[in-house]
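Contributing new complexes? Match this layout with PBG.
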Amino acid sequence: MHRPRRLRANENIREMTSETHLSVANLIYPVFICDGTGVEQPIRTLPGQSRLSVDVLVEKISVWKKLGLKNYALFPKIDDAKKDSVATEALNDNGLLPTAIKLIKQKHPDVCLFTDIALDPYSSDGHDGIVKNGEILNDETVQILAKMAVKQASWGADWVCPSDMMDFRVDAIREALDDAGFTKTSILSYTAKYASSFYGPFREALDSAPKAGDKKTYQMDFRNRKEALREMDLDILEGADMVMVKPGLPYLDIVADLKAHSSVPVAVYNVSGEYAMLHFAAQAGALDLEKTMMECMYAFRRAGADVILTYFAPEVAKFLKTL
Ligand code: PBG
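Output block (do not edit by hand):
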């Protein structure tokens, strides 16, 4: 007689035999930075998340580090006046991002910094690439992305993370980094990034929504699964040190596929819309926030994610500390 319930009978046996483990070391916390000092600007559609000026962020990292959180992805909110069609501000050595990287590294040399490579936060068109007559240009964009990578590496980023979905950008970025002597800078590629409607709150946080059209000619079609493996083969061949799936929750099949076939670690991005869903459902009394949050984290790990980018990172870290 088989009675699977025997392995669920009590806490001890469940703890002893659980198949999935989660540690604060698996987490990367995406944070939004803005100009000024002493600024903490709540983001309406991301409850609990704010745009932070660099001084405030540096202070907060001291607190988050005590929870064990040592990995941060930085997203700068650029003033509209500084945006143009070729994202000039993305290469400014005195801009917001370099200022943030340098200050964080100065105060917290033990943190690992992940920086995003794509034009959208700096582009007056709100697209990840250069727009010409309604078309997103691939090769011209890739040249700028490679320059961004070298700049970010020179500012002190540990990992550069192309999130743009242009073809062969990982190859161009790796070559540019190596040519400039940044052989130790790693690449986390947004390998399977889908044209998703779950990015809404993020685009509000950065005011980075496309001015015209959508991102379907470069981000992936959510009806496709095999295509993610093709993107992964190319990214690994081109030199990606880690591959990512984005969004997370509706794409766990893709996470599992990549994990099954990847020779490098797999990350998943638990995106802004997924975070907002849980928060607003909890506010309405429909869900228990902490319990559903942890269920999602374990679901990512169960699907095969080695690394999770999540706005829940401090809350998850707190929870893990009390275990
Ligand atoms: C920009 C970028 C986006 C996100 C991360 N990098 C938005 C987009 O592609 O429009 C979304 C993250 C989130 O929703 O949390 N290339």
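Reviewers usually confirm one structural detail per submission. For this one: Residues 116, 118, 120, 128, 163, 199, 202-203, 271-272 surround PBG (CB under 6 Å).
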